[in-house]
Amino acid sequence: YSNALIFGIETSCDDTGCAIIDSEGTLLSESLHCQSLIHLRNGGIIPDVAQDLHRRFIEPTVEETLNKAEVSMNDITALAVTLQPGLPLSLAVGMKYAKHLSRKFNKPLIPIHHMEAHALVARMQQSITFPYLTLLISGGHCLLALVQGVNKFKLLGESIDSAPGEVFDKVARKMKLRNVSEYSQMSGGQAIETAASKATNPHIFKLPLPMADYKDCNFSFNGLKTGTFLHLHKKEKEHNIEADELIPEVNDLCAALLMAVTRHLVHRTQRAMEFCKTRELLSEHEGKLVVSGGVACNNFIFKNLTILCDDTGYKIFRPPPKLCTDNGVMIAWNGLEKWRERLDIVRDLSSLDIKAVSPLGENLIPNVKE
Ligand code: KG4
Ligand code: ZN
């Protein structure tokens, strides 16, 4: 099991990503084809378009990754591929290509859960021992989980409606932030973070704390989205805004939304910490929080989570931005973690299939109102 080379393939959403990692955990090469600019133009991800682009990119991305590492597929020990959760059409492209390579070169396949990979990749560059708490925030997901081992996860809570990145993207579009040239190439979340940093008076906009009287660790972002839309429409009317114009208070409204999302994330994370403490799931002196997913790139959110961790005695970890967003490296890394523990190394491909919806571990906390 030593001297392994693990090849990772990720296609669960709108990024075609590959990477090769050796048994020491050293990254030999990576390659990523992002579709985000194309989807930005379409106003959101169209599954057929995403599938088409994955089909077009998968082979060149695999080739490029092999070339950069100066190895051939024959040198690879095992292939790791995302099979769940994600867009079914996108997942299918990665799975089919991985199965094709597996048959052609006689390599075992290691099935990967996309969210587990997000939660584990922080261990690639920093020594973070189990157990730890993880907050995964992206355009498609929002969850809190306890990571107890490479394939041992306990779900503490998740969003009951949309994900924070999805709300940032929708609000940014409604606000027409893309009409500002500075923001035109940015994701909604990035644009909102940048606009918010220029705010002067965010408190003119009031937004509620979601699920304030729920004692669980679930999230809800739809109320903040609707609340922001209402403020936006009111200001557009007030100023007689034209179709392609922004409201003058746009920076303040971005900041109000970012602050409200942050408050909610911090509140639920604090709740998860309390739960872990009363259940003695994490040692009080060695609490660790790993934040990842595209929204974790947000420095305002990260700063406020850091303050929470300082207060509760937790150590906080965040992978570099490139590893927070979707990528092939985290799939290869998860493949290596499984390879080291001889977990899920599959040779009979007939048993492998994609699963669009797949919770991360069992749910520890029932949804209760108090
Ligand atoms: O993890 P990711 O690449 O893809 C998935 O959604 O799985 O995350 C993309 C999301 C987008 O919704 C984007 O708006 C958000 O992450 N995002 C941010 C920032 N950078 C990216 N949200 C807030 N602040 C940022 N700086
Ligand atoms: Zn993701």
TrEMBL record:
GO biological process, one term: tRNA threonylcarbamoyladenosine modification
SUPFAM superfamilies referenced in this protein's UniProt entry, alphabetically: Actin-like ATPase domain
GO CC list: mitochondrion
UniProt entry tagged with the keyword tRNA processing: yes
CDD domains listed in its UniProt record: ASKHA_NBD_OSGEPL1_QRI7_euk (cd24134)
Boundaries of every Gcp-like domain copy: 27-333
Alphabetized UniProt keyword annotations: Acyltransferase, Metal-binding, Mitochondrion, Transferase, tRNA processing
One Pfam family of this chain: TsaD
Annotated compartments: Mitochondrion
Reactions that this protein is recorded to catalyse: L-threonylcarbamoyladenylate + adenosine(37) in tRNA = N(6)-L-threonylcarbamoyladenosine(37) in tRNA + AMP + H(+)
Keyword Ribonucleoprotein applies: no
EC class: transferase
GO terms, molecular function: metal ion binding; tRNA N(6)-L-threonylcarbamoyladenine synthase activity
UniProt-listed Enzyme Commission number(s): 2.3.1.234
Note accompanying the cofactor annotation: Binds 1 divalent metal cation per subunit.
Cofactor(s) essential for the protein: a divalent metal cation
Cited function: Required for the formation of a threonylcarbamoyl group on adenosine at position 37 (t(6)A37) in mitochondrial tRNAs that read codons beginning with adenine. Probably involved in the transfer of the threonylcarbamoyl moiety of threonylcarbamoyl-AMP (TC-AMP) to the N6 group of A37. Involved in mitochondrial genome maintenance.
Quaternary organization: Homodimer.
Family: Belongs to the KAE1 / TsaD family.
Name listed for the protein in its UniProt record: N(6)-L-threonylcarbamoyladenine synthase
